[in-house]
From TrEMBL:
SUPFAM superfamilies for the chain: ATPase domain of HSP90 chaperone/DNA topoisomerase II/histidine kinase (SSF55874), HAMP domain-like (SSF158472), Homodimeric domain of signal transducing histidine kinase (SSF47384)
Matching SMART domains: HAMP, HATPase_c, HisKA
HAMP domain segment(s): 180-232
Name of protein: histidine kinase
Gene encoding the protein: zraS_1
Entry-linked InterPro entries: HAMP_dom, HATPase_C_sf, HATPase_dom, His_kinase_dom, HisK_dim/P_dom, HisK_dim/P_sf, Sig_transdc_His_kin-like_C
């Protein structure tokens, strides 16, 4: 609507300015033509009476010239004509204009002056010079009223004003119908576009007619329907993807639990033997009261130890939706190491947590523990003895990729082993689903893929450094975030 009014307003303003300029130039042109016509008439009359006037001036001087001009004026009453002597010879009935203005007058270029009479009316004074024997005898003054020219100028101005008023009314009519026919329909299209940008694809826009605006409205409706269909498909695909990823993560978690089973079974064997032996001693009734109490405390301690191992295993395997909370990463790493110590001991691998600062950030603790556990399990399997070190530190880093990214503070969890390392051919495929370097039956190839997806969901990434035969170092980068 505003665009329509602006276009019509600018167009109307241009026409008004051009019309006003045309009227002004027309009035000026007519006025100049009127003056030229009067000058030509004065020159013609001056030439007509000039010779006779020279003779009368020679015979009777100024009085003869005045008398002759008066007789001449009675025959030509379309203008006032009188004799004006030169300076110094003026009679009381004549008033001379400034001599510097009359000095330029010739029979071809007469002096002209616009003056006001006693009633305030404009008068056009034309002075025709009369020279006698190379001396200026006087002037024939032609007094032409400018009423006719001024009346024409007023009429031109009045007509121009009427035209401008008519065009203004016409412009308002155009604006009114333009707003109804164009502006309001465009407003509907703009409102529909804003709803589409906000994600609202309902309520198709109704634009009557069969012109280009109506076609644009129909195209917007069609595009809105297409976007709505695509949005539904994307939502369904995103939901399916999230469900599939969660299932993969759960499967990987359960698979890791299976790996832990043998180590935990071995770890539970010793306390179970202790419990069984102490319980047998108590049942034999051969212990004193103090020894029975001591055996009962040993049984309770070993039972608590087994319960804690089982609790950690169940907590790791339990499936639950992602939930971010502020977590101390050092405690999370300690929990994962504690859970994996039996497996490391069974594989003759020393699992070491490098002493580091206590760093907290907002993550899903179960998911990040799953990632750390996967990396430690992979490091244990890649090692034949030796040491697996897990470290936590804070450092400035920039996300990998081609785009230029700002350097920010990240928390880094690194898992370093002294195993066989990773070949250059396998390095680009590490995080691809179902890719594995382990023997058949030892891995599905989902662990690193799921782990990378989890870290990526936390706006981080996993960096890998490896030398064949010297070991590997996996580093998890997690941004500082607040729950």
């Amino acid at each position: 609507m505003k665009l329509t009014a602006k276009i019509v307003g600018i167009f109307l303003l241009g026409i008004v300015l051009l019309t006003s300029l045309f009227g002004y130039l027309t009035a000026q042109s007519e006025f100049e033509q009127y003056k030229r016509a009067q000058e030509e008439t004065a020159a013609s009359l001056g030439n007509e009476v000039r010779e006779t006037l020279i003779v009368a001036w020679k015979d009777q001087g100024h009085q003869g010239a005045i008398k002759l001009v008066r007789d001449f004026a009675t025959r030509h009453q379309q203008m006032t004509i009188r004799w004006v002597p030169t300076d110094g010879d003026a009679s009381p009935e004549t008033d001379l204009p400034p001599q510097q203005e009359l000095a330029v007058a010739t029979t071809k270029t007469m002096a002209t002056i616009i003056t006001h009479d006693a009633e305030g009316e404009d008068q056009y004074m034309i002075y025709y010079p009369v020279d006698v024997e190379n001396a200026r005898a006087g002037y024939v003054e032609f007094n032409v009223p400018l009423e006719e020219a001024e009346e024409y100028a007023r009429l031109t101005t009045y007509r121009t004003a009427l035209i401008i008023a008519a065009m203004s009314i016409f412009g308002l009519v155009i604006i009114f119908f333009g707003v109804r026919m164009v502006g309001q329909r465009l407003d509907k299209l703009v409102a529909k576009t804003k709803r589409i940008s906000a994600g609202d694809f309902s309520s198709p826009v109704q634009v009557a007619g069969n012109d280009e605006i109506a076609q644009l409205g129909a195209a917007l409706n069609e595009m809105s329907e297409t976007l709505q269909t695509q949005q539904q498909e994307l939502d369904e695909a995103a939901t399916a993807r999230l469900s599939a990823m969660e299932q993969l993560r759960h499967i990987d978690r359960v698979k890791t639990v299976g790996r832990l089973a043998s180590g935990i079974a071995h770890e539970l064997g010793t306390p179970l033997n202790v419990v069984s032996g102490r319980a047998g001693l108590i049942a034999s009734h051969r212990l004193s009261a103090e020894e029975v109490t001591e055996s009962a405390l040993v049984i309770k301690s070993e039972a608590d130890r087994m319960a804690e191992i089982i609790r950690q295993l169940l907590g790791f395997a339990r499936r639950r939706p992602p939930q971010r909370t502020t977590v101390d990463l050092r405690e999370l790493i300690a929990s994962a190491i504690n859970l994996l110590q039996p497996m490391a001991h069974q594989c003759d691998v020393e699992l070491v947590a490098v002493d580091g600062p206590s760093l907290s950030t907002a993550v899903d603790p179960a998911q990040i523990q799953q990632v750390v556990t996967n990396l430690i399990v992979n490091a244990i399997h890649a090692s034949s003895g030796g040491t697996v070190r897990v470290a936590l530190e804070s450092q400035m880093a920039a996300p990998p990729g081609g785009a230029i990214s700002p350097t920010e503070q990240y928390y880094c969890i690194s898992v370093e082993d002294q195993g066989t390392g990773i070949s250059e051919e396998a390095m680009p495929h590490l995080f691809e689903p179902f890719f594995t370097t382990k023997d058949v039956g030892e891995g599905t190839g989902l662990g690193l893929s799921v782990s990378y997806g989890i870290v990526e969901d936390h706006n981080g990434w996993i960096d890998v450094q490896s030398q064949l035969g010297e070991g590997s170092r996996f580093t998890i980068y997690l941004p500082q975030q607040v729950a």
